[in-house]
Amino acid sequence: MKRILFVYVVFSMILISCSSDDDVNPVMIKEDIKFEVVSTGNKAGVIYRTFNTETEVDSVDSFPYRYTYLQKEIVPDDLLKLVFVPEGFHSELEEDPLWTDYKVELKIIVGYKVVEEMIFPITKETDFVQLEHYFIKTGPNKME
User: Fold this and answer.
1) What is the top-level taxon of the source organism (predicted)?
2) Which CATH architecture has domain 27-143?
């Protein structure tokens, strides 16, 4: 009887130790997160940087714009968002002889890897442009 109980206890311990614990301890990494905005027209604008629910705002008079979060803890489903809002109001009905279209490049870099990047045209009709990146688990101790 003791032998059966011993085997049962050992077998139970083996099953518990081999169970998946991905949900209990999600992958967490620490990386530098960089936001970059480059403008071909060097026009002023407002930049919103978001990490999950924390948003910070910077008014920018010149470019390039760069901001770095050092060694930020990141887990799956964390969100990074970068938004550029052109400064000033431009009427679509009136001709503005001083207005010229331009482009902005938004970039999100995690560690040394560019995870999101896009060049957007900015016209008189542009309200804002944005990039988003969600982290996903890609394997044991890996995330993108």
Assistant:
1) Bacteria
2) Sandwich (2.60)
Per-residue confidence (pLDDT) for residue 16, from 0 to 100: 55
Residue pLDDT, tens place only, 19-65 = 554 455 567 788 889 999 999 887 888 999 998 889 999 999 888 99
Count, residues in the chain: 144
Dihedral of the alpha carbons of 124, 50, 71, 61, in degrees to the nearest 10: 30
| 8 A C-beta contact, residue 44 and residue 60 | yes
Please write the tens of the pLDDT for every residue from 64-91. 999 998 988 888 888 889 999 988 655 5
Amino acid at 126: T
CB 109 within 8 A of CB 76: no
Residue ranges of domains in the chain: 27-143
* 64: preceding bond cis by omega (within 30 degrees): yes
The DSSP secondary-structure symbol of 68 reads E
